[in-house]
Design goal:
heterodimer; A: mainly alpha; 9 helices; elongated; B: alpha/beta; Rossmann fold; Alpha-Beta Plaits; 2 domains; 4-stranded antiparallel sheet; 14 strands; 28% helix
């Protein structure tokens, strides 16, 4: 039994960094764009305090459209847009564009569910004490939905790690790409095993951190 | 009487912290002539909800004045429209027609900024407390002040003061989940008082609490009313809450005003079926065993006792004086059942008395319920029972 690596360890490190880069940046964008989107969907929904059925329906349809498209299709379909934004259609940054666009509506819907579960009595109490709309978002909606939002963000991170494996299709590298090229195409079982183990550790770590934070929030 | 004269005038956000009084008046704006601060007037208020089963009339032509500084109770069964009526005062709900005046101002005319300022003058507490679970006790009480733009030092001072008022100094940094129901409601009260409101709305504030905690919360509310002069408007489905603290009461039945008046009057002489139904749990009705033995006609050739019901409505503060009653009836009386309660010093209730019925002298009841000789507001013969023991 030999413990020598079939490919240099630098390849693994580079792949891990690529994955972390893709997931981290896309998750950041998804968070920054998804929260306002979720808040908009909630406050413009029927009985929301900025009720606007038409706006709500338009935004809702756009969100659903992106969610309905499989990531691998989106990756290819968005190539012209990616070129416009990232200036290139290959590499890590080229993958970040479709990853963020796919993760944002996904996260927005999850965050929307947590926001929807807030007791309407809390919003009523906030209105009764003289809160303006922004105060309600800032002091009631977001803090009260935080455990659900954090839980949803954890799920988003995990699906982003999965989706980033497909980014190899645009030459972005990453752990998934390594497994396909060496493990699958070159029958290098060792690479396959190491990549799978690394992904398991990564996902488990993300899930554990997310769960712990949610538990802490809920036990206050 | 424009909105501007009362609500809009130069009220800086930080003015809420003026120690000398209510922030809304710190600029010295006079109230509209003859209107006291903290008064609420409903003028032909109606509320109609659209539902799939057609329009629902939640409030039908409510016209009523709530005096400043009073504790005003609104009672009714669930679905009577209490909650809708209460929410028209801070415009959480808008009437379909009619007008609500707070301090003489038609609140329907307020713009968004005016509405926010109005709501800072009207505190509200809730059945389920509605505290923010992600904020500590301190942060919950501080929130109305923070959103009003108060400086941090002022917030600190005011919240500390409020924590002392509701007796929760040691819970300052706890989250609401760690508090009992009564403690949560105390936080709710402190939060509602933060901006020094002139009116406090209580939405079934004690309905989720056990009887002992209810007493302590009601005591706190009474204390706040007396010490701060705040008008308290509360809705409840429990007559006992009204009896405990309210000065005046409105009985709502299916969106209508069934009756309204001082509590002692409405309780002592209820005129509407809805009131009687709500009062039933508080009243001493005829005990079952007695009802079974009751005869409508005096039995022949047997000793019997006549059962009388004496009612006290609270009017004229007429006291149930047993010695005088016995003297007036010219025979000894026995107290069978009943009880007398006092609201605002007015005794009201019923007494069931029995008197020997076979001594040849007919009972003269007509002169006992009117004039200076009156011993009760009404006396009614319920029936007769055979005298089991022959002591009389």
């Amino acid at each position: 039994m030999s413990w020598t690596l079939t490919i240099p360890i630098e390849r693994y490190i580079q792949a891990l960094l690529d994955t972390l880069m893709m997931v981290g940046v896309s998750a950041g964008i998804a968070f920054a764009a998804g929260i306002p989107l979720a808040v908009l969907l909630i406050v413009t929904s029927p009985a929301g305090f900025l009720e606007s059925p038409r706006f709500n329906r338009v935004v809702g349809s756009v969100v659903n459209g992106f969610r309905a498209t499989p990531f691998i299709v989106l990756l290819v379909a968005l190539i012209p847009f990616t070129r416009l934004v990232a200036g290139t259609t290959i590499g890590v940054w080229a993958a970040i564009v479709p990853l963020s666009i796919s993760a944002t509506p996904f996260f927005a819907r999850i965050a929307e569910v947590s926001l929807r579960e807030i007791d309407p009595g809390l919003i009523e109490a906030a209105q009764a004490m003289g809160c303006k709309k922004w105060h309600i978002v800032r002091h009631v909606l977001l803090p009260e939905a935080l455990p659900g939002i954090v839980g949803g963000f954890t799920i988003t991170l995990v699906s982003l790690i999965g989706a980033s494996a497909m980014a190899g299709a645009v030459g972005a590298g990453g752990l998934g790409d390594l497994a396909i090229r060496y493990g699958y195409q070159r029958f290098d079982t060792q690479v396959m095993a190491i990549v799978i183990a690394a992904l398991i550790v990564l996902v488990t770590a993300v899930q554990w951190v997310g769960d712990s934070y949610v538990r802490w929030l809920k036990n206050r | 009487m424009s909105e501007a004269s009362v609500l809009r005038t130069g009220l800086g956000e930080a003015a809420w912290f003026d120690r000398t009084g209510y922030a809304a008046r710190t600029d010295g704006t006079p109230l509209p002539h003859g209107v006291a601060q903290g008064s609420v007037v409903f003028d032909h208020v109606c509320k109609v909800y659209r539902s799939s089963a057609g329009p629902v009339h939640a409030l039908k032509d409510i016209s009523l004045a709530i005096p400043a500084g009073s504790i005003f109770g609104i009672i009714g069964r669930s679905g009577a429209g209490k909650s809708s009526l209460l929410r028209t005062i801070n415009r959480l709900e808008r009437p379909t027609s009619g007008t609500v005046y707070v301090d003489g101002v038609d609140i329907g005319t307020l713009d968004e900024g005016g509405l926010v300022r109005l709501r800072r003058r009207i505190g509200m507490i809730f059945q389920h407390f509605n505290l923010l679970s992600a904020k500590t006790v301190y942060e919950n009480i501080a929130l109305p002040l923070r959103v009003a733009g108060a400086p941090a030092r002022e917030i600190e001072r005011r919240v500390t003061e409020l924590l002392a008022l509701v007796g929760l100094q040691d819970k300052r940094d706890m989250y609401p989940a760690r508090l009992s129901g009564g403690q949560k409601q105390r936080v709710g009260i402190a939060r509602a008082l933060a901006t020094r409101p002139e009116i406090l709305l209580c939405d079934e504030a004690t309905s989720a609490l056990d009887p002992e905690t209810t007493q302590s919360i009601l005591g706190l509310l009474r204390d706040i009313n007396r010490r701060l002069g705040i008008t308290i408007i509360l809705i409840t489905h429990e007559m006992s809450v009204i009896r405990e603290i309210a000065d005046q009461v409105l009985v709502l039945e299916k969106g209508h005003m069934a009756e309204t008046g001082p509590v002692w009057q409405v309780f002592g002489a209820p005129r509407h079926d809805a009131t009687r139904a709500l009062l039933a749990p508080l009243q001493h009705s005829l005990p079952d065993d007695l009802r079974d033995r009751l005869l409508s006609r005096p039995p022949q050739a047997q000793r019997y006792r006549t059962v009388l019901r004496l009612s006290y409505t609270g009017a004229g503060r007429l006291e149930p004086d047993l010695a005088r009653i016995a003297q007036a009836l010219r025979r000894p009386v026995r107290l069978v059942h009943g009880g007398v309660d006092r609201i605002q010093g007015h005794p009201y209730g019923h007494l069931l008395l029995s008197v020997p019925g076979d001594d040849g002298q007919p009972l003269e009841l007509s002169e006992l319920t009117g004039g200076p000789q009156a011993v009760a507001h009404s006396i009614e013969v319920l029936g007769h029972v055979l005298d089991a023991d022959h002591s009389h």
